[in-house]
DNA sequence: GGGGGCCGGGAGAGCGCTCTATGCCCCCGG
DNA sequence: CCGGGGGCATAGAGCGCTCTCCCGGCCCCC
């Protein structure tokens, strides 16, 4: 690539018009004589012109880029930083988020830049990145309830949208699921199957979503005549599901139905049950949460409460776009409804 | 954010020096009087200055951004496009690639923008994106051997580095694994365990890596006195591993060792074996490939041929950086050595 | 037939930064 | 005491684009 990239000036000269006219054609604004439009388009074709985005965004103050930030908790050690990305994507959830975000951005010729904010320095880097005008705003997916990044962004007045409602209120828009209803759906399914003895593996206490799923589940079970439901806390990982179910089974060997707060843990639950000689769903029915890819590949395939992650991620991108363009100024919360997907496990 | 972001000019005024001096301090070049440096730094602090990247890259013709492209095959239908991202990240492999890339980029204040090129339009978009100067170059991970993107990039003279050697030679640098040696390591392990009857689940024929892993495995088995090794072709997915193993087991019920060309398929292999009443590794030893996260979470944990994906990804980023900065002009191939990680499955 | 509005196009001023050319000042040698 | 040189800062010219004026011509209406 020795030859310089053609500029607006070159195209203008080629077409025999002014820079401004070419710019108008490129951006499709104002009325330009159709004949001249063709002339310009031809010149663009001939010169192989591609508008320089740096120059454009220098004046428009827009970049067409958004930061997609996966934000961790406090202070991840230096060594763990490299593994953070791999760990994050080990959960099929994030692939779906990326898919949803890209689905919205692509038709608009926008692009996501991937950032990880699992340490104080990394968080500062995110803020700096946005302040420098590298991206128009941030889509933040927190893996930890105490994530300080949202507050940092709000404080700096940077456009951002969160996945899930933050524990501490922050002046940012977010999307979320009606977790309580998700818990309800799981309970209704187990009740409908006639399960008498029911237990649940919840997510981490500190996570609001865990609490709500649990509340929805318990309230509904109570209404169905089962006021007491044993709970074991998990950490949304397969291993934690195994551990929680092992505990539950020791205390309640006669369990007939289990609700796990995500599919990964439900998979662990199934493993433990099978190893202990219980058949799923004949002896014990299992309901998962998320309807992620593991729900389908699990043995047996999991009945799961579907979280429309792609739609939620797309909505995040849409909200951010509206904030960036000034179409929306006040923070807003968009709530999605879960749905029960019945497979074999319950 | 109503107040305008401070500019170099503002800082210069605040510090009582010229724009150029502030620029020198910010970029740490040339000799600037230490006293004045402090003065400037103080002014930067006070004004909360952050250099505008668009303006900078307009003159430096560098962006500090690289495109991380996951490139598919031919023409994915419109509906599938959204799911492509999710499918891609369902393979733990990509999470590791992202981790390796970010590990290299971050210390240099560079960032990856995620792109998917699974349709002709999407490929054009990648080329356009780079030609517009949105990113300095591309890191390309192809999921399909016939991927036309590398040729497109080479033709346009855009800096790019590939993961894995392309089938059709292309004037681009790439990193790759010594796949043949990987196959050899798997064979040696099964031979050392005394497996007599051995079979293998290969990757797709069209993929060069599959061929080489298979060749290394077969050649080594032959040298060990087993000239005939049954093969079933898989597609690097869990389902395809299940299907392939089902076929193999039907034809060779007395199999004692299985080499699967990646961990996902090895997991499928283990599932089938367990369902058919075979114990792993007591009855049948299983060796996987990649040493991905599923290798550790699989039951039993998989003995696997480790592919240093993070290192390879980091090397891609480093090569791209060298190409972009003109430190390297001719394409180069960097080869990595696999390593056997012994767990329980073999 | 003349004036005002409107439409299509051009000129030029920046956007915020880098970097070259230039100038100032001080120190040193003759 | 003067000329020369080197360190350190400044001035200013762009980088490629958008966008606000502004101007010329045409149409329409009175």
From TrEMBL, chains A, B:
Residue ranges of domain HTH cro/C1-type in the record: 7-43
Keyword tags: DNA-binding, Transcription, Transcription regulation
Entry annotated with the keyword Transcription regulation: yes
Pfam families, per database record: LacI (PF00356), Peripla_BP_3 (PF13377)
InterPro entries linked: Cro/C1-type_HTH (IPR001387), HTH_LacI (IPR000843), LacI/GalR-like_sensor (IPR046335), Lambda_DNA-bd_dom_sf (IPR010982), Peripla_BP_I (IPR028082)
Segment forming the signal sequence: none
Domain HTH lacI-type: 6-60
Cell membrane in keyword set: no
Domain of life: Bacteria
Protein name, UniProt field: LacI family transcriptional regulator
Organism (species): Streptomyces rugosispiralis
Source taxonomy: Bacteria, Bacillati, Actinomycetota, Actinomycetes, Kitasatosporales
């Amino acid at each position: 690539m020795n030859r310089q990239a053609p500029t607006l000036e070159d195209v203008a000269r080629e077409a025999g018009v002014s820079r401004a006219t070419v710019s108008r054609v490129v951006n499709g604004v104002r009325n330009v004589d159709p004949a001249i439009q063709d002339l310009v388009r031809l010149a663009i074709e001939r010169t192989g012109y591609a508008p320089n985005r740096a120059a454009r965004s220098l004046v428009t103050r827009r970049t067409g880029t958004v930061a997609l930030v996966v934000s961790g908790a406090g202070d991840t050690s230096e060594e763990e930083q490299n593994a953070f990305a791999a760990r994050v994507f080990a959960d099929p959830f994030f692939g779906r988020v990326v898919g949803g975000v890209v689905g919205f951005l692509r038709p608009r010729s926008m692009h996501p830049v991937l950032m990880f904010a699992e340490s104080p320095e990394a968080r500062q880097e995110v803020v700096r990145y946005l302040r420098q005008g590298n991206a128009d705003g941030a889509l933040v997916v927190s893996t930890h309830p105490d994530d300080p990044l949202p507050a940092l962004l709000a404080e700096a007045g940077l456009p951002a949208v969160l996945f899930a409602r933050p524990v501490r209120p922050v002046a940012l828009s977010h999307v979320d699921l009606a977790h309580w209803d998700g818990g309800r759906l799981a309970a209704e399914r187990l009740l409908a199957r006639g399960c008498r003895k029911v237990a649940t593996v919840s997510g981490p206490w500190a996570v609001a979503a865990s609490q709500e799923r649990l509340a929805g589940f318990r309230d509904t079970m109570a209404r169905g005549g089962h006021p007491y439901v044993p709970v074991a806390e998990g950490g949304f990982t397969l291993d934690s599901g195994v551990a929680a179910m092992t505990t539950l089974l020791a205390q309640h060997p006669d369990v007939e139905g289990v609700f796990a707060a995500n599919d990964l843990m439900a998979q662990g639950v199934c493993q433990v049950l099978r190893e202990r000689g219980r058949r799923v769903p004949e002896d014990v029915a299992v309901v998962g949460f998320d309807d992620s890819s593991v729900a389908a590949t699990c043995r047996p395939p999991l009945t799961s409460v579907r979280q429309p992650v792609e739609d939620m991620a797309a909505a995040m991108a849409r909200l951010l776009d509206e904030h960036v363009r000034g179409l929306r100024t006040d923070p807003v919360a968009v709530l999605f409804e879960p749905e029960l997907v019945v497979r074999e496990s319950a």
